[in-house]
Amino acid sequence: MALALSRPVPRSHLSPGQLLVAGAIAAFLLLFLVVPVATVIYVAFTEKGTGAFTLVNFLDFARTDLFVRSFWNSVYVSGMSVVWASVFALPLAYLTTRFEFRGAALIQTLGFLPLIMPPFVGAVAMQLLFGRNGTVNLLLDDWFGVKVPFMDGLNGVIFVQSVHYFPFILINLSAALRNIDRSMEEAAQNLGSSGFRLFRRVVFPLALPGYLAGASLVFVKVFDDLATPLLLNVKDMLAPQAYLRVTSIGIADPMGYVIAVVLIVASILAMWASAAAMKGRDYATVQRGGGGLAKRRLKPWESALAYGIVGLILLLVLAPHIGLFLLSIATIWSFSPFPDAFTLAHYARVFGESSIYIKNTLIYATLAGLIDVVLGTAIAYLVLRTRLVGRHWLDWAATAALAIPGVVLGIGYLRTFYGVTLPGGTPLAALWIMVVLALAIRRLPYALRACYAALQQISVSLEEAAENLGATKTRTVRRVVVPLMTGGILAGFISSFSTAAVELSATLMLVQSNSDAPLAYGLYVFMQSPAGRGAGAALGIVAVLLVALSTFASHLVVERSQRAKGAAQ
Amino acid sequence: MSTRFLSVSAALGLSLAATLAHAQAPTGKVTVVTSFSKDVTDPFKKAFEKAYPGTSLEVQNRNTNAGVKFIEETKGNNQSDLFWASAPDAFEVLKGKGLLQKYAPKATGIPEKVGSYPINDREGAYFGFAASGYGIMWNERYAKANKLPEPKDWADLTKPAFYDHVSIASPARSGTTHLTVETILQGEGWEKGWRTIKEMAGNFNQITERSFGVPDAVNSGQVGVGIVIDFFAFSAQAAGFPVKFAYPTVTTVVPANVGIIANAPNKAGAEAFVEFLLSTPGQEVLFDPGIRRLPVNPAVYAKAPAGYPNPFKDAQFQKMITFDVDKSEARTAVVDTLFDQLISFQLNDLKAVTKTLHEVEGALAKKDNPKARALVAEARDLIAAMPVSEAQASGAELRGAFTGGSQKGARQAEVEQQWAAFAKERYAGAKAKADEALKLAR
């Protein structure tokens, strides 16, 4: 049970293979991220009238009350969302991974669902339940004559965002907790630690890379998210301000792009800060969960309490989906706690059309997820295990994708690739593969953080041992590093896959025909009319089920592989 | 080369093109970029493909702004045939950039104007195919529960009863709302119009980012009253929602449009689609319960469902104002930005002072107090004050600030900050006066 006391020592010489991989990744990021985005946001640095380089626009940013207010609002909302997301995620993650808990895979899957909140319908469903005239408030008003402004202003944004994004913490923290060998806990118990102290001093610190990976993602994602504030009609936050300016007709103002630059810089700073917080500490252990997880049994009353807590949290975080489901089977739902009547007509309406959307969604999201984990693993390895000059830039560039509004990326792709024609005369940007690439770029940070955290937990001495025994570097990576990272890689794939499956903003710019359209696009088309609301919700439920089933399947795979590992001992 | 020769060859070319078009029926894929929902596009797609066998209508849904950006960004290698959307100003942007192909529709029976708005673009770049008016939509269940009176006119929405019950889309984001605001400004004049708008705005519960956000909130009962374009209300009624709609006295009907994109890959198909929209069968599709827009061919109304509004006959449409398109175009960006800076981003301050003023007037109705009344009038004047005069709004200096990189001058961000500071100061002053008046009135 040796904790690796030495810091991981990156080998000083680089193999040509590593250089090649680094070059390929850099080229990919340059071509599909940096160049398209640069074609759009360079305006931020130009002077009005002359086009010369200037920073005066940033001065304007600092001088405008609205932007300054928006900036601090965004910081506040992001911070509070991390707090609430942690409150939701910690009990779920800890209870399901470290205790004998029936239905753990199911709970993990359900706890993951909020991330798959299809555009528009999620906020509509939340309004119907928690809005000023939603189910809860109408009932409260009926019974007690009071209303609670859950969804008003910044508090509404914090509420929806923490429900929406807490799975980032859940999934990364769970993966990290699973990776802690029981020997660590046993050692602590032998030394007299138990209960909450054991969790606080031993288990949680060992899982800290996973927690921080999730928390920093929540922070940055909330900071950069524009859909939720806009749907709740909160405009004085930074991302909505950027979006409103970039997409308004006739406004050729650079401020939208200035805000985009501020968003990108702030996101990279947040990621850098979370990395700095981990600096100088070592979270790697030589023993991997192979000794079997220390899953303790709960006493009956503890068990009842645990199920109670889990049930309550799930009920709260799944509220959007419950609302969505009600909406999808409702006839008319207007100013009443529950719909007037129920029907299956909406499902019948979308049934014929949804198969093409489902097929496209599965193809796009799977490809995007695969690209992301391959890139994520490679970047994490280069950053953590090599001394390549500028390796951190790969990480930061990939992370910056988080802060780029989808519409900016979409426009950038059109600008960069629409002029390039294929032999048949169709523009390159019209191919569906461009949608996949845009999705992969947008979701890369999720997979990257998960892979990064997974690699941080692996002691470098395992690789050194393999190499001492004569394995080549490639073979070590393939036979030792990647298998040990499996949990993290899978967590990354699931995050990327499921969020790519419901992404809309870049897709809306790039989809060229209905036959190439994913579910989110079909849903958008339905949700623009009163009669389409139920049908849109039905399509949303189809999307959620689709992603949930895929997620559940992958959880089963993880559980099985862990059981196999445990049994082999 | 003489003009005569030119016109002769042009005529020859035209007739040649006509023969060719006649000989060659439109076929293949017709790609249309549209902001219309599936409820609107599906019936048209079905009817069009039936009327022109061998064609298929490829519908690309994008919101109006994204659609315009898309066409602009892809012009070098254009693959779209048509742009089809409501807001005429979006077409103006495309036309201004030379992205629309001129065309002369052959359809007959369509008058020059609907209400007082010209149906087709004067230069033949885009064509109205359906009319829509702006008005007030409300949720009956919500109105009953909150005891709201039936709103009939814009001025009704300034009353205390509607405080925190009204919703509107931001005019910078919704072409239709922009026209509503412009209609009020043209109908009541710059100063008086802004006064009405700000008094209404004091009662707003929310300012949404999408046009459809407003009817959506009213349909679900999150807000009671919305300022919307008529078909949102009609199609919601058709879907069974408990909503009602009224045209106020100062409003206008404007056409929803279609235009052929320059260098369309399937030009014959695009022209066929325009002709179909303007033909009698195409116009009749507008009566579909999911669409519910007003045809521009008066003869088609003979087949309209009972109670369908007819802008060519009904009295309420005859007194609607004339809409000056040029005036509107000259100040679009200024009006939208004024709305955002004075209202959207200052909504909390504006609502706070409005609430106090409502309370003062409630108290004054019971017991009059001339001094308090004078303070109220002063506060209302402070709220109504504008940082920009009507002449300045369409003046070259401000236009320059909003056109981006083309010339040196004031930067948009600077101007915006000035306006926001102006509004903040005035609203704070008005709040102080209102508070004082409340003390006196009680």
Automatic annotation (TrEMBL), chain A:
Residue stretches making up the ABC transmembrane type-1 domain: 71-270, 358-554
Bilayer disposition of the protein: Multi-pass membrane protein
Family: Belongs to the binding-protein-dependent transport system permease family.
Protein name per the record: Iron ABC transporter permease
Superkingdom classification of source: Bacteria
Segments passing through the bilayer: 20-45, 75-95, 107-130, 158-177, 198-220, 255-278, 305-333, 362-384, 396-414, 420-441, 480-502, 535-558
Gene3D superfamilies recorded: MetI-like (1.10.3720.10)
GO biological process: transmembrane transport
Entry keywords, A to Z: Cell inner membrane, Cell membrane, Membrane, Transmembrane, Transmembrane helix, Transport
Automatic annotation (TrEMBL), chain B:
Swiss-Prot/TrEMBL keywords: Signal
Keyword Signal recorded: yes
A Pfam entry, by short name: SBP_bac_6
Keyword NAD: no
Signal peptide per UniProt: 1-23
Name of the featured protein: Extracellular solute-binding protein
Originating species: Salinarimonas soli
Upper lineage: Bacteria, Pseudomonadati, Pseudomonadota, Alphaproteobacteria, Hyphomicrobiales
